[in-house]
Amino acid sequence: MKSFVQKTDNELIRLFIEGNMTALEALVLRHKDKIYTSVLFLVKDKYLAEDIFQEVFIRVIDTLRSGRYTDEGKFLPWAMRIAHNLCVDHFRKVKRTPVIKTGDDRDIFEVLNFTEDGADVKMMKRQSHDRVRDMLDRLPEDQREVIILRHYADMSFKEIASMTNCSINTALGRMRYGLINLRKMMTEKKIAL
Q1: 0.70 exceeded by the pTM?
Q2: 123-157 residue pLDDT tens
Q3: What residues make up the domain containing 155?
Q4: Cα separations (Å) of 19 from 13, 74, 132, 168?
Q5: What is the sign, positive or negative, of the torsion defined by CA atoms of 153, 157, 158, 161?
Q6: Helix (H) or strand (E) run with residue 5 in it
């Protein structure tokens, strides 16, 4: 696996097409955090995000095996486009399923999440993540989407513009206004992350 770390995405794709499953594993490991985090921020449900993340790589595998992959050197933007489209498809086709909430309006499965961090670290992380999610949720959808794709998926503005069918200047403007709105919220609520 160590030898795969230095290979480019295109080299890993070629090795996978030639039958090397470890190359696919290296490709997934390389990009899983960016893709999963972006999906999670769009759908706001970690179990749904996991399902969509898996579907992304099922589509990636099918496309690679069928020889239809043509985005030479642009694997991550291509995979992110698949993830984005799957999220959009989800919201078009499926109504959100009810979530079991605790008395303090939190998802029961988030309460039952076990990690190795101490209780104080878990609480501070959760509070910071909740604050960021809450502020992102309050943004207009177009601003939230650009911020998520830029910061969590590490996509360029050109890639974001292509994915969201807008100009680069529009994507930049949405980012600018989104960040201004986040700063206002932080100032108004005296939030420090």
Answers
A1: no
A2: 777 777 777 788 888 889 899 888 888 877 778 88
A3: 114-187
A4: 10, 21, 42, 38
A5: positive
A6: helix 2-5
